[in-house]
Design goal:
This protein is α/β, with parallel strands linked by helices. The strands form 9 sheets. The chain has a 7-stranded mixed β-sheet with strand order 5-4-17-16-18-19-20, sandwiched between helices. Strands 7-6-8-11-12 form a 5-stranded parallel β-sheet, with helices on both faces. The chain has a 4-stranded antiparallel β-sheet with strand order 21-22-24-25, with no helix packed on it. Helix 5 packs parallel to helix 12 (315-327) and helix 6 (115-131) crosses helix 7 (148-160). The chain is globular. The protein starts with a helix and ends in a 5-residue tail after the last helix. The protein binds ligand 6R9.
């Protein structure tokens, strides 16, 4: 495993610069260690103090952590609050006229809203939702482009206690249908089309298709935001966003909910075909978002211009676009487009244009920008930057170095943040004024996060050896359950083998002599393609759903830019295709997967065989398929294979 060895030899260490450390929210290793000690000596007191200090409670909590129903933990559960109040109302008196959102559209046009204006828009939309009969606990699907309106829709749901479930605009009608059905959504909020790199992506049309796929009688209304003005079909449950919102009052009393009230559901891939509805709480989630903004991004609400490039369809776009920055009253950029449109310098141009101080993106974006050369960023004034972050997948040390030197000018700390949809907020990441960084390591856990590496029985693992990444104590921002599937929640994240109370992240990792964490990859059948989680089973199920396909196996292969590429081995019902016919079927199957799941899941490569290599018990030998995909020499014993000749077939990709 070449990538793991090369990481192991990484010895560069970057201590925080004095000037940065002096102004940091947490300064020096002693500052970090003092927080860790507080958490260790009085775990509940540590979190309770922070929750009182940072959150405005309508009704203060008296209970901190309730472990009686473990692993269904509760935090601050007799306290009452509202997330939208904490993100908007509480800033109005002191910074009502401050810019909250700077919207940078696909074509480069800019729209800004102040806290006062954002508050008014959220209230109007919340009143609009109420007028449609949306009540506390109802589910609202948000299938929107990156826009001020997407943030408004999420905040409006939070304001009235409705549970939003954002579905990434790149997901297909079929994926959308599955989520509508599972969440039993009452209202869908969408747009006519989204614009990406100058191209229109039909969203409303996908909603129409999804609603025709099965029993969607739960959906009473579809609210459509006019983004592009493109042609769309119109039906009985449809209504325009502007018609719904513009006549509504600009104030709306927040619905005060228990800290344990679900704020949202976000579907993510797991090791079976069915996406998991990760359910988050209100109080614990908000606390995680706020603390990590302050600790890891060293947030300075009065001077920072913060930009996280993630789409609101992913967890990063929830915690670090829709909630975290607003909860601190910051000014943030939200970006509709893609990094290379209308030109390859778009990201850096945007940093210079808005004098961005804090920039947070994914390794896949960094790697693709590295390919374009260092001259490009040099053409823009990046001197406003003071901190850089990365998320979504392991970052190669060389990409980290480029980011630190070429983008950060050697002056900005780089925070590599490890966390997941399920953890809600950062878990392992450097506090930039305290923890020295090492390229490729997410460094040390946040104070209060009891991360560890264990063997398969929960026992300790020697330093330097890989094992399961776990979190040994409950923490406020963790998922509460899987929507409608508590059994799967328990089995997936709190397996009996580890004692039933330890959170199993699904990643493998090792620690070095300084206790630093190095993430090695997923232990389940989940691929990480351009920072997006894709279940191999989901893609296999999609392929097998095609009438031509008898059997399919999907594996990942290291990819220079995307992290992993999707390689599919397919057995057709007829004979194995070759030449032009094979090419034609490859194109057809890629399109098919695009429609079933979404374009991000399209296999990069499809290989056809008369059969797949299987063990005696009939299990597909995925390890072997991974080796073949990488073009590695096969050293495994293949004597048990029924038909070893198929290995030669599978070595051939359709060109
Ligand atoms: C936030 C997010 C979670 C999975 C996670 C891991 C990978 C995320 C990482 C990282 C190495 C990092 N991952 N951040 N691996 N270093 N800094 O990405 O959530 O979409 O749920 O993905 O992504 O494998 O388990 P999500």
């Amino acid at each position: 495993m070449a990538s793991i060895e090369s990481i192991l030899t990484e010895t560069r260490v970057f201590p925080p610069a004095d000037a940065f450390a002096r102004q940091a929210n947490v300064s020096g290793m002693d500052g970090y260690e003092a927080l860790c000690r507080q958490a260790e000596s009085d775990y509940e007191g540590f979190w309770a103090n922070l929750a009182r200090q940072h959150i405005d409670w309508k009704k203060p909590f008296t209970r901190t952590l309730d472990e009686s129903g473990a692993p269904f933990y509760k935090w601050f559960d007799d306290g009452e609050l509202n997330v939208s109040y904490n993100c908007l109302d509480r800033h109005l008196a002191s910074k009502g006229d401050k810019t909250a959102l700077i919207f940078e559209a696909d074509d480069g046009s800019v729209t800004q809203v102040t806290y006062k204006e954002l508050h008014a828009r959220v209230c109007q939309f919340a009143n609009g939702l109420k007028s449609l009969g949306v009540e506390q606990g109802d589910r609202v699907i948000v299938y929107m482009p990156m826009s001020i309106e997407a943030v408004v829709a999420m905040q409006a749901c939070a304001r009235i206690g409705a549970i939003h479930s954002v579905v990434f605009g790149g997901f297909s009608a079929k994926s959308l249908f599955e989520r509508i059905e599972d969440a039993r959504a009452k209202v869908i909020v969408t747009a006519d089309e989204s614009l990406r790199g100058g191209k229109a992506v039909p969203l409303k049309h996908a909603v129409d298709e999804a609603l025709a796929m099965g029993d969607t009688s739960c959906v009473e209304r579809v609210v459509v935001y006019r983004r592009s003005g493109g042609d769309i079909a119109w039906g009985g449950r449809d209504l325009w966003w502007h018609e719904l919102a513009q006549t509504q009052a600009e104030t709306c009393e927040p619905v005060w909910v228990s800290a344990e009230h679900p704020l949202f559901i976000l579907y993510t891939s797991g090791s079976t075909g069915k996406p998991k509805g990760v359910q988050h709480s209100t109080g614990g989630y908000l606390l995680g978002a706020m603390l990590s903004m302050l600790w890891v991004f060293d947030a300075k609400p009065d001077s920072d211009v913060y930009w996280c490039t993630a789409d609101v369809g992913w967890i990063t776009g929830h915690t670090y676009v829709a909630y975290g920055p607003l909860s601190l009253g910051m000014t943030e950029v939200i970006f509709e487009g893609i990094p290379t449109f209308p030109h390859a310098g778009r990201f850096w141009e945007t940093v210079a244009k808005h004098k961005v101080t804090t920039f947070y993106t994914a390794p896949t974006a960094i790697r693709s920008l590295i390919k374009l050369g260092s001259d490009l960023p040099a053409q823009y004034d990046l001197s406003s930057l003071r901190l850089l972050g990365t998320v979504g997948e392991p970052i190669n040390p060389e990409a980290w170095m480029w980011y630190q030197q070429v983008i950060g000018g050697g002056r900005c700390p780089v925070v590599d943040t490890w966390w997941q949809t399920e953890t809600g907020s950062h878990m392992i990441a450097p506090l930039p004024g305290a923890v020295p960084t090492k390229p490729g390591s997410c460094t040390l856990p946040l104070p209060g996060i009891m991360a560890a590496i264990t063997d398969e029985h929960g026992g300790p693992v020697e330093k330097g050896h890989g094992g399961f990444l776990v979190i040994q104590r409950p923490f406020p921002s963790q998922l509460r359950t899987l929507w409608g599937d508590p059994d799967r929640f328990r089995k997936t994240y709190f397996p009996e083998e580890l004692g039933g109370k330890t959170y199993l992240a699904g990643d493998s990792a090792h620690r070095d002599d300084d206790g630093y964490f190095w993430i090695m990859g997923r232990i389940d059948d989940v691929l990480n393609v351009s920072g997006h989680r894709l279940g191999t089973m989901e893609i296999e199920s999609a392929l097998v759903a095609n009438p031509r396909v008898a059997e399919a196996a999907v594996v990942g292969r290291p990819h220079e830019i995307k992290g992993e590429a999707v390689v599919a081995y397919v057995v057709l019902k007829g004979t194995r295709p070759v030449g032009e016919e094979a090419k034609k079927i490859v194109a057809e199957l890629r399109d098919w997967v695009g429609k079933e799941i979404g374009p991000i899941a399209k296999p990069d490569e499809i290989r056809f065989g008369d059969n797949l290599p299987k063990t005696r018990s009939g299990k597909i030998m995925r390890r072997l398929l991974r080796a073949i995909a990488k073009g590695e020499e096969i050293t495994q014993d293949v004597s048990t294979l029924e038909n070893p000749a198929i290995l030669d077939q599978l070595k051939e990709a359709v060109k």
